Amino acid sequence: MTFWSPNINIFRDPRWGRGQETPGEDPFLTSKYAVSFVRGIQGDSFEGGDLKDGHLLASACCKHLTAYDLESWNGNNRFTFNAHVTKQDMADTYQPPFKSCVEKGRSSGIMCAYNLVNGVPNCADYDLLTKTARGKWGFKGYITSDCDAVSLIYEKQHYAKSHEEVVADVLKAGMDVNCGDYLANHTKSAVEKGKVSESDIDRALHNLFSVRMRLGLFNGNPSQLPYGDLSRNDICTPEHQDLALEVARDGIVLLKNTANLLPLSKSETKSLAVIGPNANVSKTLLGNYAGRPCKTITPLQGLMNYVERIKFHKGCETINCTSIASSEAVRIAESADYVVLVMGLNQDREREELDREDLVLPGKQQKLIMRVAKAAKKPVILVLLCGGPVDISFAKNNPKIGGILWAGYPGEAGGKAIAEIIFGDHNPGGRLPITWYPKDFIEVPMTDMRMRPDPWSGYPGRTYRFYQGEKVFEFGYGLSYSKFSYKFVYVSRSKLDLERLSTTEKNPEYVPVSDIISMSCEEAKFLAIVSVENEGDMAGKHSVLLFARHDEAGDGSRPVKQLVGFQTVMLYAKEKANVEFEINPCEHLSRASEDGTMVIESGARHLTVGDREEYQFSITF
C-alpha cells in the first residue's frame, strides 16, 4: 500500500486552504513531523534504522515538492502559479522538511507539485528531483507527479512545445510516474520521435518496482501475508478509538480563560445553552482528506454527557451565517447557567482548490456571538472549529467572552475531547502551530513568497520567525488550567569556537556548515536541561518549547527567533521534572545566507523557554 502523505509544505499564508493538512508554519517542527510520520507509516521505529532489509510496511510519500502553498487567489491558481523564491528562503524555509523526510525519515516516495518555481515546473526540474533529492539528499524511491500535473506543463503552463517534449522533460528530470494517463498516452510517441530513450524508462521502472518489491508485492498471495486480510474491524478497535480521542485532546488549544472561567463545575452547572452552526455537524470535525470515521461525537453530543438540561440552537443555518436567529439564540442563552458557542469554518471555506478571501468569521457569526454574549448570565465560552487562523480580536478583548478554545478539525472524537476540556476531565496543553494574524493581513499578496520583511516597501514578512506586525495570537501560544514555570538547571556549553570547526580559510563573521566535517558537528553538540514545574492544582500534559535567537535578531535577515527543540512532559500538581534538549549548532544555530548557504555566525546567542527564562552563550573565533 502506498500513502500519498504527509503534506509537509509550510503553512506560509493564513489563507491557504490546505494549511489544515500540514503541521504548521515552522520548518523545524514540520521536519520532525515528517520524519516521525514516515517512520510510522513505513514500519520503522521512532528512532529510525529498524527497517529490516529495506522492507516497507507501507510506502509514505512526502508532498508537495516544492514551495507549494496556494490554491486559487486573485486570479492565480496552483496549476499555473510561478512561485518566485529566493535561494535564502528555499534553504531555510521551503526545503528543510523535504530534506529531513528523505535523509532521516528515509521516505520511499516524493510527490512533485503542480506549480513552477522560478520559471521551472517542479516535475520537470532536474536540479530539484535528481541533483537535490537523489544526489544531495540520497533519495532512494519513486517520484510521482501530483494528479494531472504533467499534462499542465504543456496544456496550461506552455513550458514545453509538444506532448513528447513534456514526457522527455519529466522523465529526464527524474520523475518516475504521473498520477493520470499522460505518460501512458504519449510516452510511446516520445520514444519513436527520439525524445526519450529506453534507459529513461528503465530507470523509472526500476524505481517503481523496487518500492513494490520492498512492499512485498511479489512475495506470494497478498491475502496470506501479514496484514493481508485487514478490515474495518481492525481499524475501529477500542485502542484506535482511544488514540483518536487522545489526539483530539492534545490538539485543542485554550486561547483565553478570563478569571479561570474554565473548567466549568460538573456539580454546579445545572443547565447549558449550546449555540452555533458547528455544534452538531459530524462532517465538520473531519476536515480535509479524512477517512470514514468509526463513529463521531459532535460538541453538542459530548456536552450532553455532562449536563442533563441542555438547550440547542444553530443560531444560523450554516457557517456562512447570512442570517441569524438571534431572538431564539438569545432566549435560550438568557435561561442557561452557561453558554457554549461553537462557531468557525468548514470545507466550504477552506480546502484543496479553495483559499480563503478573508481572516474573519463568515457572515454574521460575530454579530451572533456578541448578541448571545451580551444576553448571557455569565461570560460565554467560544469554541472554534477551523483549520486556518481567524482574527477574533473582538472576542479576545470582550470581557463577556470568558473562554476561547481552538479545536482545529479534531476528528471523530473531537466533540468528546472539547466537552472533557470544558468540564475539566482533561487539562488542555495544545500550542498554536501557526501565527494568528490580524484581518488586514489580507492586504499582503498571497503570491509574495518572501519570508523576510522588507522595510522599504512595508512588507511585514511571514510566520513568527520573520513577521514584524501585530498578532492576534503568537505561534506556540496556548494556556492551561495549571501554571508551569521553567528554569535552566544545566547547559553544557557557554562558548563555541568556530575556528576549531572550520576546515577552510577563516571568515571572521561566519562559517559555512558545508565546511564543517560531520565529526566536528557531533563534537559541537551540547545539552540544555530545563526544570519544569507544575505550580497548579491539576495534573497536565505540557509542551516545552525551546527557542534560539541571535543577539541581532529581528534585523530582517535573521529570524526573530527559531524553534530548536520541543518536548512534552506529563506532570502532576506541584510536580517537577527535568527536560533535556540536545543542541546541534550545525543544525539549530545556523541560518541561510542570501546565496542559500547555511552558515553559523559569530556573536551572542540566547536560548529561551517560556516568557522570561533565558540562557546566553557566545559563538566566537
Architecture overview:
The structure is a single chain. With 621 residues, the chain is of the alpha/beta class. 26% of the residues lie in helices and 21% in strands. A six-stranded mixed β-sheet has the order 9-14-13-12-10-11. Strands 16-25-24-19-20 form a five-stranded mixed β-sheet, with no helix packed on it. Strands 1-5-8 form a three-stranded parallel β-sheet. Strand 2 and strand 3 (76-77) form a beta hairpin. Helix 4 (126-136) runs parallel beside helix 6 (163-173) and helix 10 crosses helix 15. The radius of gyration is 26 Å and the shape is globular. The N and C termini lie far apart (52 Å).
Q: How many DSSP-defined strands?
A: 25
Mean pLDDT score: 95
- Low-confidence runs: none
- Sheet of most strands: 6 strands, mixed
How many angstroms separate the termini?
52 Å
Percent helix, as a range, is 25-40%
Helical stretch count?
18
How much of the sequence lies in strands comes to 15-25%
| Apparent shape | globular
What structural category arises from helix and sheet content?
alpha/beta
Strand order of the largest sheet: 9-14-13-12-10-11
Radius of gyration: 26 Å
Question: Which secondary structure elements does this structure contain, and how are they paired or packed?
Answer:
Blueprint: H1 27-42, E1 61-65, E2 72-73, E3 76-77, E4 82-83, H2 87-94, H3 96-103, E5 109-112, E6 116-117, E7 120-121, H4 126-136, E8 142-145, H5 149-155, H6 163-173, H7 182-192, H8 198-214, H9 232-235, H10 238-251, E9 253-257, E10 271-275, H11 299-304, E11 309-313, H12 326-335, E12 338-344, H13 365-375, E13 380-385, H14 393-396, E14 401-406, H15 414-422, H16 463-466, E15 484-491, E16 495-497, E17 510-512, H17 518-524, E18 526-534, E19 540-550, E20 562-571, E21 576-583, H18 585-588, E22 591-592, E23 598-601, E24 603-609, E25 613-620
Parallel strand pairs: 1-5, 4-6, 5-8, 10-11, 10-12, 12-13, 13-14, 16-25
Antiparallel strand pairs: 2-3, 6-7, 9-14, 15-18, 17-23, 18-21, 19-20, 19-24, 22-23, 24-25
Helix pairs in contact: 1-3, 4-6, 5-6, 6-7, 10-15, 12-13
